[in-house]
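Quick entry between incubations.
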Amino acid sequence: MQSLTNRARPVDRKPMTWLERLYMWNIAKGMFITMKHIFMKKATISYPEQKREFSPVFRGLQILNRDQEGRENCTACGLCAVACPAEAITMEAAERQKGEEHLYREEKYAARFEINMLRCIFCGLCEEACPKDAIYLSETFAPSNYQRKGFIYGKEDLLIPNPKEDPEAYKRALGTRSRNKAATI
Amino acid sequence: MSVLLAVDWGYILEKLVLIVSVVSISLVIAMYETYAERKVAAVMQDRRGPNRAGPFGILQPLADGLKLFMKEEIIPNTSNKFLFVLGPCLAMLTAMMTSAVIPWGGNIHFTLFGADRTISLQIADINIGILYVFGVVSMGVYGIMIGGWASNNKFSLISALRGASQIISYELPMGLSLIALLMLTGSLKMSVIMGQQLDGWYYVVYQPLGFFIFIICAFAECNRTPFDLAEAENELNFGYHQEYSSMKLGFYLFAEYINMFISSAVMVTLFWGGYDIPFVNDAALFHRIGNWATVIESVVMLAKVAVFIFIFMWVRWTIPRFRYDQLMNLGWRVLIPLSLINMVITALVILLKENGWRF
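Done. Structure below.
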């Protein structure tokens, strides 16, 4: 059988040689190994100062998207909530009033949009279900919190910054992945 | 009344200062040994170890100590209250007492109120120095025994029995290996043994096997891996200090680290020239820079001790624990015959040398 790694060693059942039976020699070998490990490169990444690069397909915290004019994409159709296997998404729809055209892209919008980050499994099915490119998963993850209710993210936590008011923050929040997507639409 | 006035108060004062400083230094060193232990363990396992509390984590022992103080003090209902408290106190006391006879450096000379004073950096230069060390160290087993007995817990009791029999068994080869050394020195006085090595050959050159046996027994005496059967956590879940919490547990852990420090210091004094600065003529140096030479000597002593403490840790994180029968086998059937052979050979060589190498 072909081995998975070439590090496997067959068990050696030969009787011990005189040197091995002396035991001291093996201790010396062991001491040498531990000494060698002192000078080896450490595997640890000191987290808050250094961060590990995420995979390009990493699925992190959800973001509610806006279009180029800063209008919310979400129409509160509820497809994401239906698609969600963990039932983490709740929303309430509302009708767009006169004079709110610069806020919402279509006549219906989400007045309340909540994701429970303790329930969310970051599968990305909401992103797949969304017909309006209104929700996508970003490259960060939910920070820790002291209370459970701190993990229920509302619209104010999820919405991307307005590109008209703060283009820098918008770009940062958009990340690399959605930029490609925005270009296709 | 006149007898009382004749007491040299300066002498008492200087000894008091010396005692307080030696005790506090060994406490601080024991504190940082816990830090060093975690660091050494970490780097040997390709980890980083504590590095969050303060720069490089050097405040970690303070945080650990604070945590231990904050913990709830639990005395089990079924335990013997008096003995339960006495156990860790004894362990700590015996650990600290040994430092009294170790020479931590040369003499300091200074003039105070027109009177020349010479202060020796050794608390008590008693003529049975090494015997005193042995006496106090073997008292250390009472800390474990009493703690294990008073906890009223089967695991603690088994651990106490193991600890006691192990320490008593390993005291024999330790003593026998020392007899060979004492035949060479002709004295039990620590300062004399130290002085013979000053600017000369260290006794490890004459007694390599004796030193080897001594260091193995020192591991066993300090209850360190590979001989830490008394606190074998996977068989006895922590053994004699299982029922202890808060600072009483801290005392036990601390006593272990102080023991490690002291036994390293004893090894350095007996076999590795104590405070002698290697490759430097200490007397000439003292003549040149005065008291600073003594300071350097003390630093050299502590550096040598630090090397031995590192060896203790290095061994701990390399060698797995012995099985109990293997431990007894090694002690009684290997180390005692070896140290006896060492003793006989040493005696033979000394005799031959005195006879001018003729039989």
